[in-house]
Amino acid sequence: MGLRVSIVLPTYNERGNIEPLLAQLLPLGEQWDLELLVVDDDSADGTAELVRQLAHNEPRLRLIRRVGRSGLASAIKEGLLDATGDLVLVMDSDGQHEPGSVRRAIETLEAGGSDLVIGSRFHPEAQILGLSDRRETGSTWANASARFSLPKRYAHLTDYMSGFFALRLEPLLPLIRGVDVNGFKFLYELLAVSRGRLSTAEVPLTFQPRTYGSSKLDLAIFWDFLISILHSLSFRLLPRRAISFGLVGLSGVAVQLLITQLFMALWGLGFEQALPIGVISAASSNYLINNALTFRFARLKGVLLLRGLLKFLLVASLPVMANVGLASAYYSLIAPNAFWAQLAGIVVVFVWNYAASSRFVWNTPN
Ligand code: GDD
Ligand code: MN
After folding, report:
1. pLDDT at position 338, please?
2. How close is the Cα of 184 to the center of ligand 2, in Å?
3. Are residues 334 and 212 in the same domain?
4. Which of 233, 262, 280 is the last residue of a domain?
5. Is there a domain that residue 365 lies in?
6. Residue 109 · residue 117 · CB < 8 Å
7. Less Cβ around it within 10 Å: N or C end of the chain?
8. pLDDT given for residue 256 in this prediction
9. Last residue of a domain, one of 202, 233, 264
10. ∠ at Cα 299 (294, 305), nearest 5°?
């Protein structure tokens, strides 16, 4: 019997897909000492119940069930930390990753010379059957920005977003512990925290269409990824949530300019009357977007959403005075430069709004 191999299978509503997949993976038990580890985020469709039942007759099958869904990357991290194999492979459980590549990935790892083997959908020998054109273009862009933001040593890789990869557990455990788990991109984060120290290899991975159910990738996951790229580009110094808050703030600038202009041009309002409408619209849109993206883990709904808006407007109105005071002080005390004076004011407003609204609107310490 060869090495011990664990296969981590994250599931969220995969009741229709998991059983055939397990059946296809079990024969690997003839070649290796196998462990199949399903990490379920309390699926409503009974995935966990089914896996538990199957485990009665299959000692190689284990189930981890978590309550309070915290996402794919977090499920993968949990599976890796709990796996007992020497080698661990992570793959999707919806059948989109063909089980045929599993053997090849593990054998590549076993052959030595690499700590991490990635199943790539963009490998010359791979095929993409199960992604819409839009998703495929999205992945290509995501890959290009990932390549740009990661250490040069990984520049030759072709699929930084893959959900299929195998690794040597023991040497990688300290890195895995440090992976930040937001959204989908576990592999990208692992490569980022490893700072170029991993030796990698790729195997082709054919991406199949889904049989049952639907994808869980949504706009919020794209947003998380964009924030991750900026986080890496800031040498991981700026807090992730602050980056998100800052980007939303920029969208607010556009909203304010647009609304103010609109009220002046279409309804003939004067600048002084139009401006407050623009400012309040921008603050409200910032609030709603932050609630949906930056603070979605603490998302406010219903009456609380309205109460949060009032708090946010209150929090954001305080630094308006500070902003004016600070910009004037900078102008008269430090340097009479209107640009830098305003910029100093804006930085202070940003820090205040971020810190105070995290604390008072969404009740999260930062
Ligand atoms: N435990 C857990 N918790 N599992 C999850 C969660 C979650 O919150 N969200 C998704 N999964 C599981 C799904 O059940 C599936 O087995 C796998 O993760 C992939 O999820 P899909 O929703 O099928 O993703 P996809 O097919 O749209 O995305 C594919 O491409 C991405 C990059 O473009 C996958 O291969 C991803 O792994 C990959 O990152
Ligand atoms: Mn899928």
Report:
1. 66
2. 11
3. no
4. 233
5. no
6. yes
7. N
8. 87
9. 233
10. 115
The Cα 267–Cα 27 span in angstroms is 72
The CB of 72 under 6 Å from ligand 1? The reply is yes
The answer, yes or no, to whether any atom of ligand 1 lies below 6 A from the CB of 130, is no
Q: Is the CB of 95 under 6 A from ligand 1?
A: no
pLDDT at 274: 87
Distance of CA 265 to the CA centre of its chain: 41
The SS3 of residue 149 is helix
Confirm or reject: Cβ of 94 under 6 Å from ligand 1: yes
Q: Is the CB of 296 under 6 A from ligand 1?
A: no
Q: For the chain, which ranges sit under pLDDT 50?
A: none
One domain, residues 220 and 285: no
For residue 147, give its domain range: 4-233
Q: Tell me, yes or no, whether 278 and 175 share the same domain.
A: no
- Closest-lying ligand 1 atom to the alpha carbon of residue 12: 14
* Shared domain check, 227 and 127: yes
Ligand lying nearest the CA atom of residue 217: 1
Atom number of ligand 1 nearest to Cα 216: 22
The token pair that represents 43 in the structure block: 């699926």
CATH code: domain of residue 132: 3.90.550.10
The amino acid at 25: L
pLDDT the model gives residue 272? 83
Q: Which of 39, 40, 92 to mutate to test the pocket of ligand 1 (most atoms within 8 A of CB)?
A: 92
- Supply the pLDDT for residue 44: 94
Token pair in block for residue 348: 């202070």
Q: What angle do CA 304, 353, 308 make, to 5 degrees?
A: 5
What's the number of domains the chain is made of? 2
Q: What is the pTM of this model?
A: 0.85
Domain shared by 226 and 245, yes or no: no
User: Does residue 216 have its Cβ closer than 6 Å to ligand 1?
Assistant: yes
Atom 17 in ligand 1: residue holding the nearest Cα: 92
